[in-house]
Amino acid sequence: MQHKPKHVVQSPEWSEFKNAYGTKSVQCGELFYTIHKIPFTPHFVAYCPKVDPFVINWEDLTKSLKKNGCVSINFDCPNILTTDTNYSQAKALVSSECTKTPKDTFAKNTVILDLKDGEEGVIENMHPKHRYNIKLAEKHGVIVDQAETLQDFDVFFQMLHDTAEREKYYIHSKRYYQGVWETLQPKGMCQILTAKLNGRPLSAWMLFIYQGVLYYPYGASSGELKNICHGNLLGWEAIKLGIKSGCTSFDMWGAANNPNDTNHPWWGFTNFKLKYGGKLVEFMDSYDYVVNPTVYSAFNFTNKLRWKILRLIR
């Protein structure tokens, strides 16, 4: 069977963060899931992102879900790629027990960059324009700092908040990101890199490191001085950090499914990520395992309506 590192959001440390944040995280065998209240009911739904389908014990899981009052569990984008040798086996296993979920939370596509050949290997496979832009940023005096203090975190979050306001998308509360930082950073699992010019923050990435994989879940930009390509240098310094930390791959977390569709809202950052030399990949479909079909159907109906309203507000 093809071996794959456990995803960071299926780690005991991520479960620790979730519990500290106030979202109950439950361990069932080798998997972790969180439980979420269905408003105005005594019921809950469970959420289990990036699980390895082959570690699921369906009997134990059913008992655990019922014990915690859950009507279903969402296996959001299980950690199996459509190109993995065990993809068909994983799909058959999950689809035999579950129903396809109405909506993915994680992006189904991502860009994965191979780091096994070190810095020289990455540079060799990188798009020439990216190599040029990295040197351009360095020529202009851009430097990249690694966050060490809560004040450094505050700089990151303020930029993230401003980016979300400017680009009109939802983010978590400051307490959420600070909880991630305070839980994972001391364990060497979370780092923040910030690109600066003369001490002025221009862009920043929060990165995760777990079981030899570097992740880029959250990024922010001031929107200023894009012409000096500080984002390109920031990405390169993230890659160097991953290699130094012993990572063999870089999961850039999310991407458009078609890199040639220039009308896709994610086309810009997908193209940016691909130019580092990574490959566009697709995860298997998301599935729900249902233990209370009646409440599950009612929940899906109201949740779909909720998302329609949120999109209209934005």
UniProtKB/TrEMBL annotation:
The UniProt entry's GO biological process terms, in alphabetical order, are: cell wall organization; peptidoglycan biosynthetic process; regulation of cell shape
A molecular function (GO) term: aminoacyltransferase activity
Q: Which PROSITE patterns match?
A: FEMABX
Task: Point out the coiled-coil segments of this chain.
Answer: none
Alphabetically ordered keywords of this record? Acyltransferase, Cell shape, Cell wall biogenesis/degradation, Peptidoglycan synthesis, Transferase
Domain of life here? Answer: Bacteria
* Family per record: Belongs to the FemABX family.
Q: What is this protein called?
A: BioF2-like acetyltransferase domain-containing protein
* Originating organism: candidate division WWE3 bacterium
